[in-house]
Amino acid sequence: MGAIAAARAEQRRTVTVEQLRRRGWRGRLAVLGPAFVAAVAYVDPGNFATNFSAGAGYGYLLVWVIVVANLMAMLIQSLSAKLGLATGRSLPELCREHLSRWGTRFMWAQAELVAIATDLAEVIGGAVALHLLFGLPLLHGGLITGAIAFGLLGLQSRGHRPFERAIVFLLAIILVGLVSTLFRTDVDAGALAAGLVPGFAGIDSLVLATGILGATVMPHVIYLHSALTQRRLVCRSAEDTRFLLRTGRTDIVLGMGLAGLVNLSMLVVAAALFAGTGVPGTDTLEGIFAGLGTQLDAVAAYGFAIALLASGFASSGVGTYAGQVIMEGFLRRRIPLLLRRLLTLAPALVVLGFGVDPTQALVLSQVVLSFGIPFALAPLVWLTAKRSVMGELVNHRVTTAAAIVVTAVVVALNGVLVWETFGG
C-alpha cells in the first residue's frame, strides 16, 4: 500500500510536458536523469579494473578504445531511450512481443547471465574498496555492498527522482575522486594523441580492449534505459514528443560524456604514473591504491578508493534494477526485490569466499559482458528501424547503418578474441 500511495503522490506532483516546455531551460533540467542512472553502469568497478590495467600495462595505446566505446555508448543509449519514449515499453517487453517463445527464453537466459556478471564486478569492487578504506574482509564488504544497493532501490518507492538524485550524487563522488587526480598528473600529450590511433600489442591487449568495451557498452543498461524513459512523462502532442527527444539527447550527451571523462581519466592516470615505471602490482586494485600513494600521495590513493566505493554502491543498485526490468519484460514475472538481490549477490560472495583474485575476476567479468552486447544490440537496432514499432520516431537510415556498424565491430572484436585465445 505504501508503494501505491507513493506512486499516486508522484503522479499528482507530475507536471505535463507542455508545462515543462514553457519553462525553458528549467523544464529541460527537470527532464534530465535517466542517462545519468545509465552512466553509472559505465563507470562501475569493472571499468576501474580494465582501464587502470590497460593504462599500466600498455600506456596510452588503448585510449582510442575508450573514445570509440564512449561514442558507441551515446548512440546505443539514445536508441534505447527513444525506444522507450516511442512505445511506452521496455526492450525486453518488445522482444517478448516480437520473438518466438524459445527465442524469448534464450534472450532472457543470456540477459540474466549478463546481469550476474555485472553484479559480480560491482559487488567485488565495493568489497575491495571497503577493504582498502577500513580493512574489512572482502566477504563482509560484499555483504555491505549488497545491502547498500538494496537500500538505494528502496528509494524507488518514493518515485523516480529520489533514486536518480542518490545515483547522481554517487556519480559526482566518482568524478571528483578520479578527475582531481588527473589534473595533478603529468600527462604526455604527444603519447596521448598517438593513443587515438587504433592498434593492439598482442592477445593480452586485445583481451583488455574487449574488457574495456564490455565495461563501457553495458548490455544490462541497454535493456534498462528503455524502461527508464517509458511512461515517465505522457506526451499529448507531437511537440511534446520532440521536446522529450531533444532533451533526452542532451541527457545522454551529458551523462555519457561524464562517464567517458571518468574512464579516460583512469587510463591516462595509470599510463602516466605506472607504465614502464616498475611499480609493482598495478594489475590489481590493491596495487593501484598502493601505487597512487607512492607516485603521488595518500590523497590520490584514498580518492581512488572512495570513488571505487561509490561506484560499487551505485552500480550495484542500478544492476539490480536492470535485473528486475529483464525478468519482468521477458517473462512477465516479478520476484521480491530482496530475493532478487540475494540471487544476484550469491555468485559474487562465492568468488570472494573462495579467495579468487578480485581484479582478475573483474576483468574477466567485463569480457563476459562484451559477449552479451550483440544480443542486446541486434534487437534494439531491429526494433528501432521498424516504423510499425516506432512510428514517426523510426530510425533514419543513416542511424540504422551506424548502429549496424557498431554491432558488427563488437561481434568482430569478440570473434578475433575467441580465435586468438583458442585457435590462434
UniProtKB/TrEMBL annotation:
Specify where it is mainly localized.
membrane
**GO MF annotation list:** cadmium ion transmembrane transporter activity; manganese ion transmembrane transporter activity; metal ion binding; symporter activity
Q: Which residues cross the membrane?
A: 29-49, 61-85, 106-132, 138-155, 167-185, 205-224, 252-279, 299-326, 338-356, 362-385, 397-419
How does the protein's chain sit in the membrane according to the entry? Multi-pass membrane protein
- InterPro entries this protein is in? NRAMP_fam
One of this protein's GO BP terms? iron ion transmembrane transport
**Keyword Mitochondrion part of the UniProt annotation:** no
Question: Is Cytoplasm tagged as a keyword?
Answer: no
Write out the entry's keywords from A to Z. Cell membrane, Ion transport, Membrane, Symport, Transmembrane, Transmembrane helix, Transport
Instruction: Kindly list the places in or outside the cell where this protein is found, as annotated in its UniProt entry.
Output: Cell membrane; Membrane
One GO cellular component term: plasma membrane
Family of this protein: Belongs to the NRAMP family.
* UniProt function note: H(+)-stimulated, divalent metal cation uptake system.
NCBIfam families linked = nramp, Nramp_1, PRK00701.1
Name recorded for this polypeptide = Divalent metal cation transporter MntH
Please report the organism this UniProt entry assigns to the protein. Pseudonocardia ammonioxydans
Q: Which gene encodes it?
A: mntH
